[in-house]
Specification:
With 449 residues, this protein is mainly β. The chain is 12% helix and 39% strand. The chain is built from 5 helices and 28 strands. It binds calcium ion.
Length: 449
């Protein structure tokens, strides 16, 4: 019965599209929205994706999903969520759902496969009766620039971050170096922020690439690539790169992989710090002049690091995690060889590396971090919020209090996030925290009451 209703609804939707439903037909649009609310999340996502891709209209609505209370640092906050018109993490076979940036009074959302929409921040209010949220489709030229079909299909090849810096928007993505050769690297594109259309141009392309079929790389995992971009001093940016699980790159000073890179405004790349595995959280505090980064460990050993220039953070020699063997003593040739090459020492400092500020065993799959504003933290120390993806300790926000010299972790509080959180962003006024939850394809806003 439910299936029949669902198929009937799809047919209805297509008829609407065929008769060229326009935005003036408010009543029909309202009927669609009301019916979408009756479907389950999977059906809603598929329908909103079909609607998004086939709509000739440049506007649409994110369907209101849920509102709940959560407590961070003793403050009772409200989290409101809306369904995004993009496939969730499992539907898209591990493609990141998407990334948020803000420009003046607008939020810009990019899906992992390159669709972009904008939302007016003024439309997001604390509402007693929350409603759908209007979006505008933001056109871009990514289809002209990214020719690798796997970018648009389910799978881990995707955008890895977006960041607005002054009047420009940057995106990073997993880049197939050329279509004739199966070899992946990272690339950054840059566009002037323009809500008529974003015209991206090449900014930085790392020439070094990792071939999944090259056995000398060990293993290949196309989502262990870092990819975070943040504004840094002197008009430069910091850019994190992962090791694609090839391990050998991170401590190789001639490789740009497994690093945090500093890229000057004229495109000069400098290795800033080394010994990283997959840093997917990166934050620069201009006032305090500190850089914080979170990175995924292997089985256990996710880290929060205070990044300083020319430091070595130890991967793949030191780690509080273990290789993907059942236990360290496992004597399969695979495990034996891995531990011979990369011993996973349980100290960083003893081997000349920098200790993490804190680490997580078991893994949390650390995704992004932001500094809390006074709306979310009123203590005298320094407080960050770290989001996480999977793992037995994942699907959790970590509120982490640091000492004022940033050298010590004072406290860590866990707040359930219920879902994989891919991205976090604080609003320009500091009063809202945006999250991207990719199990159910949600945009959420956390606000103080
Ligand atoms: Ca480390």
């Amino acid at each position: 019965m439910k299936k029949f209703f669902f198929l009937g609804f799809i047919a209805f939707l297509f008829i609407c599209i065929i008769i060229n439903l326009n935005s003036q037909n408010e009543k029909l649009h309202k009927t669609i929205i009301e019916n979408v609310n009756k479907l389950n999340t999977l059906e809603q996502n598929l329908i909103s994706k079909v609607q998004f891709l086939s709509s000739k209209s440049l506007q649409g609505s994110l369907v209101y999903n849920n509102q709940s209370q959560l407590s961070i640092n003793g403050k009772m906050l409200v989290e409101t969520s809306w369904n995004l018109p993009f496939l969730n993490y499992s539907q898209s076979s591990m493609k990141p759902l998407g990334f948020i940036s803000t420009f003046k009074e607008k939020l810009i959302f990019f899906s992992g496969d390159g669709h972009s929409i904008s939302i007016n921040l003024s439309d997001i209010k604390t509402q007693d009766e929350p409603n759908n949220l209007k979006y505008n489709v933001l056109k871009n030229n990514l289809h002209d620039l990214i020719k690798d079909e796997s970018f648009y299909k389910p799978g881990w090849i995707s955008i890895k971050d977006t960041e607005v810096i002054k009047n420009d928007i940057y995106i990073s993505y997993t880049n197939r170096i050329n279509l004739a050769h199966n070899c992946y690297s990272l690339k950054i594109l840059k566009a002037k922020v323009n809500f008529k259309k974003l015209i991206f141009k090449d900014h930085i392309s790392l020439k070094e690439c990792v071939d999944p079929d090259d056995v000398s790389n060990g293993e290949f995992t196309g989502h262990l690539v870092g990819g975070r971009i943040v504004e840094y001093k002197d008009n430069s940016i910091l850019f994190s790169t992962g090791d694609f699980r090839a391990r050998k790159f991170s401590n190789d000073k001639n490789s740009y992989l497994g690093k945090i890179l500093k890229i000057s405004s004229d495109g000069i790349i400098k290795i800033f710090s080394i010994g990283h595995r997959n840093p997917q959280g990166l934050f620069y505090d201009k006032n305090a002049n500190i850089i914080l980064s979170s990175e995924h460990g292997p089985a256990g050993g996710d880290e929060l690091n205070l990044i300083e220039e020319n430091n070595n953070y130890g991967w793949p020699i030191s780690s509080y995690g273990e290789h993907y063997c059942k236990r360290k003593s496992e004597k399969t040739p695979y495990c034996k060889k891995l531990y011979e090459l990369y011993p996973m020492y349980k100290s960083h400092s003893k081997y000349g590396f920098i200790e993490p500020l804190t680490y997580f065993v078991p893994s949390i799959a650390a995704s992004e971090l932001i500094k809390m504003s006074e709306h979310f933290y009123t203590g005298k120390n320094y407080n960050i919020l770290l989001s996480s993806l999977a793992g037995s300790a994942g699907k959790t926000f970590y509120s982490i209090e640091l000492s004022n010299d940033y050298k010590d972790v004072i406290s860590i509080n866990k707040i359930p996030s219920e879902e994989r959180v891919r991205d976090l962003k604080i609003s320009p006024d500091g009063d809202k925290i945006f999250t991207v939850k990719e199990d159910s394809s949600l945009l959420t806003v956390i606000m103080n009451l």
